[in-house]
């Protein structure tokens, strides 16, 4: 399995473990050089947003992947985690609706997490 798919699957599971809502994986590799995947989710409030972010960082860190840049953690409205090959966006509900990244990146392919190769 390639690194970016593995990272996307780990991030998805970390978000799902902490009850992240409406988790989306978007393959942007054919439309952008920013990353291979965007993973987008939201939490109910700033505390849950931070818990989701913390779990993603922890689980990817255990697998040897470390965040290159983190933005927005202090406010908990929209946190961006840049891991290089994947970028994780965790919003509160209102900001997710407002920024609507799924619409902006609609040229990417929404990936069903079940299609990502299972981890060993």
Short description:
With 120 residues, the chain is an alpha+beta fold.
Number of helices, counting only DSSP H or I runs of 4 residues or more:
4
The averaged pLDDT comes out at 91
Beta fraction: 25-35%
Distance between the termini: 10 Å
Helical coverage, percent range: 25-40%
Uncertain runs: none
User: Using only CA atoms, what is the Rg?
Assistant: 13 Å
Shape: globular
| Series of H and E elements | HEEHEEEHHE
Tell me about the biggest sheet?
A: 6 strands, mixed
The oligomerization state is: single chain
Order of strands in the sheet with most strands: 3-4-5-2-1-6
The count of strands amounts to 6
**Overall SS class:** alpha+beta
Description:
- The chain has 4 helices and 6 strands, in the order αββαβββααβ.
- Helices cover 36% and strands 27% of the residues.
- The model has no long low-confidence stretch (mean pLDDT 91).
- It is globular, with a radius of gyration of 13 Å.
- With 120 residues, the protein is α+β, with helices and mostly antiparallel strands.
- Strands 3-4-5-2-1-6 form a 6-stranded mixed beta sheet.
- α1 crosses α2.
């Amino acid at each position: 399995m390639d690194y970016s798919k593995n990272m996307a699957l780990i991030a998805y599971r970390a978000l799902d473990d902490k009850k992240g809502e409406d988790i989306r994986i978007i393959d942007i590799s054919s439309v952008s050089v920013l990353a291979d995947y965007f993973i987008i989710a939201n939490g109910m409030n700033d505390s849950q947003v931070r818990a989701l972010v913390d779990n993603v960082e922890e689980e990817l860190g255990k697998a040897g992947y470390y965040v290159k840049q983190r933005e927005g953690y202090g406010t908990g409205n929209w946190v961006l985690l840049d891991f290089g090959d994947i970028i994780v966006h965790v919003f509160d509900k209102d900001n997710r609706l407002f920024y609507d990244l799924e619409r902006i990146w609609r040229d990417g392919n929404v990936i069903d997490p079940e299609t990502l190769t299972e981890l060993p």
